[in-house]
Write a structure and sequence with these properties.
The chain is an alpha/beta fold and about 280 residues long. It contains ten helices and twelve strands.
Length: about 280
Amino acid sequence: MAKMILSAFADEYCDDFGGQLEFLNREGIGFIEIRGVNGKNISMLSESEAMKCKKELDQAGIKVSSMGSPLGKYPVLDDINAHLETAKKIFEFANLFDAKLCRVFSFYMPEGKNPDDYKERVYENLEKLISLSEQYGVSLCHENEWGIYGQSPEKCLELINHFGGRFHTVFDMGNYVLDGYKPWKENYESLKHSIKYFHIKDALAAGAIVPAGCGEANIKEILSDYQSTAKEDFFVSIEPHLQTFSGLNQLAGKDFDNPYKFETKEKAFEEDLRLFRALFN
């Protein structure tokens, strides 16, 4: 049976990169989905800062499972060419970190507009990102998120079908719940063939992001099914987004009174990780 390999957005534990690596080692997690480094997004690092990260990763024995990039997380009408230099830098960093995967999005739609009116623009933009990533041997994995073209399972599948085997899925079951879609079972099944890895986030449809196993994201059912048929080992990235995470309401797209409250983001992350592991022990 394929192995489920644990990774994490450790910047949700703390901003300090050294602290992130210490936490991962303490928890026996050998991979990181690198996104925030000492308070800076991975896309904003200089070459020397990235080299320093590589040295710290090697010293800690931590590898990078995927680049937690912000690519495609901007308005669809932005000039994509203005973002290609950022993409190039991220893919160069991916090669430096020996990361084969990179998370991307499919652009924010103008408020109140029909996404179908922007389909060709989305295709053109993604084609440029995919073509560039292929030059670096990096596979782009699309994350479903509120407000972008690929918010719904149907639109995600449309993108996967359009680009064939050149574009992949990072399945975020919690985001689907928040956006009004049931991840299990039909929507998961429709995208299963394209999934490269998973983001572990649980939620209630009413609008609360909750610890793993406490919501309606069907984490255990989805991962158990995927593992039973997967042909190769795969990553699962812990991404709690619990209440103490800054920018939470903006990311979730909803205002809510979360029934799960934590004093610190460190405690929130530790509890989320504990409950996730309990699902499979």
